[in-house]
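FYI - complex with zinc ion, inputs then prediction.
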Amino acid sequence: MSEKIYIGVAWPYADGPLHLGHIAGAYLPPDIFARYHRTKGDEVLMVSGSDQHGTPITIKAEQEGKKPGEIAAEYHQQFLDSWRRLGISFDLFTSTGTANHTEVSQDIFLTLYNKGYIYKSVMLQPLCPRCRRFLPDRYVEGICPYCGSPGARGDQCDDCGKPLSPVELIQPRCRLCGTAPEFKDSEHFFLKLSAFRDRLLDWVKQQTHWRQNVLNFTVRYLEDGLKDRAITRDIDWGIPVPLPGFDGKCLYVWFEAVIGYLSAAKEWARSTGDRERWRSFWQGEVKGYYFVGKDNIPFHTIIWPAMLMGYGDLNLPYDVPANEFLTIEGRRLSTSRNWAVWLPDYLSRFDPDPLRYLLSINMPETGDTDFSWREFVRRNNDELVATYGNLVHRVLSFVYRNFDGCVPEPDELDGRSLALLAKAGETLSTMDGLLYRCHFKEAMRSAMSLAQETNRYLEEKSPWKVIKRDRPAAATALYVAISVISCLRTALYPFLPFSSIRLHEFLGFKGSIEDLGWQLKSPPPGQRLPEPRPLFSKLDDGVVGEESGRLGQAHSTGG
Ligand SMILES: [Zn+2]
Ligand SMILES: [Zn+2]
């Protein structure tokens, strides 16, 4: 029976390019998940958009002599280009800059306000006397009051993951000039998170299917108590507070950006011509998954669910399969020190599938993992090319030359051949179970183990030699190999869509892989095969030195 799957993906902040940490953490996993469900015949809605408001964009705009909207639009275009080239298949990638998003955000604000979940109060806002401006939370740095980390920002501590407000920091200073900020009274709106603490805790404790790290973090957080948080700021670049007398104040980005999950679904519905269609992904029998990085967990397991509980009538998240961090060459990724691999840079020099392969087989699902260029080259050459690509190319080009470019007619299948075909079927059903539970790394490993098994089978059967004395035996082995390759085409499609689509064509199929379904679908004997070309290319060892030499060098955004 087909299911409805809503996939919300973290909204990237439009003030800089994407890097591999973003991709491994939040963007590749939902794409794998969406492609898998679509192939199964499930109805999927995958949405996200660029987060365009907030002070960091206004500061960047000032530095570059542009308008905030221009900066946001530039990066929005770059994101769209990156998704296309990396194959991240959003049903809609919009932005927080739309009239629709403003309307939905203001409606949620007013509904929560009218229900008493948002109230007015005075808060201390950091003001830098030297820069003469109110500072955005993340432009105040200091010591974390919870864990003592010296590099905590005013919005969050990266070391212990706690969301913070600037006034909580010990020895706060302005990130722009280093001066200690003054704190000035300002009237703002607060979200009454404390009212949801018990309901949230009851709800979270029932989510036993969540990843252990996500569940533990959330329970610990709630057990420590939940403070009300200010959700407006003194800034004019953003969504205005929809009440009279609050000119110059806007909804704070973390409150407003999560509403994008709902506003994007509404925008998508409008684009289909059925304005009410968003409801089928937000109400009733539908599972909502939110793919985010580790640092985003509390916003998706606590704050957004609290807002939804307060608003009413909308589904809470079913799962938040947050990933851990990706380190680069053994060191923590740092954008300010340019210790990062930028996605536009990567895509300007390499194909998308080798990166998708490495980040899948080495995904930081349950603990941090490391990206190194040496491993990138090794896995590309020894696994993607040697285990999978060569298997496909060797079989298809041999059949193309020796069987008039058609799938050979098999003789009777022996036990060994039947066992391999059975393993192919089992691999699809094992992967089905793993992908359904968001265990991407393990799913990828089962597919690769099927490819290895097929190589062993061909070594035993050796059709390249046998063809001279026993043509039917060679035809049978090649037919079996083509059937398993056809299975790998489907199994690897969620992970490696570009090469899978090419393989689909090399196998003589028309239409899309998704239309064939998540099942063993072999090309029938006699099906015409076009001339194959290699799916992947070997990388030179020189790539390692060349690429790692770019790390930590003068910043380049690729463009
Ligand atoms: Zn901390
Ligand atoms: Zn300053």
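The pocket of zinc ion (ligand 2) is lined by residues 128, 130-131, 174, 176-177, 179 (CB under 6 Å). The domain at 116-250 is CATH 2.170.220.10 (Methionyl-trna Synthetase; domain 2).
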